[in-house]
Amino acid sequence: MEETTPLLSPLRETGELARARGDGTGSVPGSAVRVPGTPGSSHEREPLLDRGSSSPREFHRNEFVDDPEFCEIIRKAERAIEEGIFPERISQGSSGSYFVKDVHGKNIGVYKPKSEEPYGQLNPKWTKWLQKLCCPCCFGRDCLLLNQGYLSEAAASLVDQRLQLNIVPKTRVVYLASETFNYSAIDRVKVKGKRLAMEKVPKVGQRFHRIGLPPKVGSLQVFVEGYKDADYWLRRFEAEPLPESTNQQLQLQFERLVVLDYIIRNTDRGNDNWLIKYDWPADKGGSKDIEWVMVKEPIIKLAAIDNGLAFPIKHPDSWRAYPFYWAWLAQAKVPFSAETRDLVLPRLTDPTFIRHLEDDLYQLFKKDPGFDRGQFHKQLAVMRGQILNLTQALREDRSPLQLVQMPPVVMETKRVPQRDDSQSYTHSLTHTHAHTHTDDSVSYTHSTQSRKPFFSWW
Ligand SMILES: Nc1ncnc2c1ncn2[C@@H]1O[C@H](COP(=O)(O)OP(=O)(O)O)[C@@H](O)[C@H]1O
Ligand SMILES: [Mg+2]
């Protein structure tokens, strides 16, 4: 029950929830209600995997009934692992990331287990471990929740899908076990014991038949083929400018990247964390009868990968600003196009859309054993603030560069009861910001961050 009452304060958990969810028409707008100081329930810190399930293994089945395409990929990955084609660690990066393969050894996904994230206890890259040990105060990004990168990856994909940006390769939370993953010595010893038992006492061994290396929870992102680091292509395009129409395509894709990154407040968007595919379709018709050559447009496509360091609980405010590196590109100086505005503005200004997005994010984030409702509300407050700035920038035909120069805003919500029973609530604005909106069940409190990052470019 508790898990189905995600964002509501204890004040609203009964009838209003039913109305809010009932027909989806949104009679209770703004289902996100921030109740300052409300501690998370004790359940929230319990591992969800163990809660209320007679069969914990069920949680490890990767079922995506709503998404047959993704289902197909995970089945291929599972089949490959069963046949001994294991995921292969990606050498670069600060954490354990793996190329997941099909039975033919072809890359089909990128898997990032939670326990091998930069600050996870089984991160195979020892430098992060050393950093944690030697310099705990400089450890991690204080605006981010530690070890929830896999959720951030999946949540970025969710935002991308809901806004129909289509630039994030589909990413979802899955469970995988593989010999090539980094396991604790205890887990390895257990498996060794099992193998010995199988060999020596087959009957006993059978009892352990299903006990192998424990599946790890992590994010699986679909592998996209034919893409290269944006850095590579951007340099090429400087030397060999693109045809105008292709350049326009790139600009539109770039704007979608900006929309995504800004909303999720990605803190790790270097130009190595987005990829570009550039294809000149060769005319392979080759028929001797045809004397003319069909001129086809080159295709340019962008993929936003590595979204694990997003959804902060506050705006970066000290020491490091985590800038969006795309802000230095020439594309960032061009005002947002009408196409991008028409794609996202109607959704971002629709309270029902935002409410559903927040609910979907809740369903995703609550899966983490360390889920904390208070922290989640902070993440939402930052995201709403970003959306508020973005909608303003889109309305006023600003450029991505102008967008990142806007003062960061957090937007908390809280229910403010009225004296009468009219279901209308006051709304408070704690800082000057041009944009406010009323809602009949919640009060939005915007606050503009005044503390500038210690190292800031703007
Ligand atoms: N979805 C993907 N499709 C194809 N290649 C990918 C994908 N995701 C990552 N890669 C490749 O793997 C490299 C490392 O992935 P990344 O997500 O950046 O991991 P890390 O967190 O280790 O930086 C990338 O630079 C890119 O070359
Ligand atoms: Mg990376």
From TrEMBL:
Residues 1-60 are annotated as: Disordered. GO terms for molecular function: 1-phosphatidylinositol 4-kinase activity; ATP binding. Keywords: ATP-binding, Cell membrane, Cell projection, Cytoplasmic vesicle, Endosome, Golgi apparatus, Kinase, Lipid metabolism, Lipoprotein, Membrane, Mitochondrion, Nucleotide-binding, Palmitate, Phosphoprotein, Synapse, Synaptosome, Transferase. It is found in: Cell projection, Dendrite; Cytoplasmic vesicle; Endosome; Golgi apparatus, trans-Golgi network membrane. It is a lipid-anchor; Peripheral membrane protein. It catalyses: a 1,2-diacyl-sn-glycero-3-phospho-(1D-myo-inositol) + ATP = a 1,2-diacyl-sn-glycero-3-phospho-(1D-myo-inositol 4-phosphate) + ADP + H(+). Its EC number is 2.7.1.67. InterPro entries: Lsb6/PI4K2, PI3/4_kinase_cat_dom. It comes from the Eukaryota. The keyword Mitochondrion applies. GO terms for biological process: phosphatidylinositol phosphate biosynthetic process. Belongs to the PI3/PI4-kinase family. Type II PI4K subfamily. Residues 13-22 have a biased composition (Basic and acidic residues). This is Phosphatidylinositol 4-kinase type 2. Residues 84-413 form the PI3K/PI4K catalytic domain. It comes from Coilia grayii. GO terms for cellular component: dendrite; endosome; Golgi apparatus; membrane raft; mitochondrion; perikaryon; presynaptic membrane.
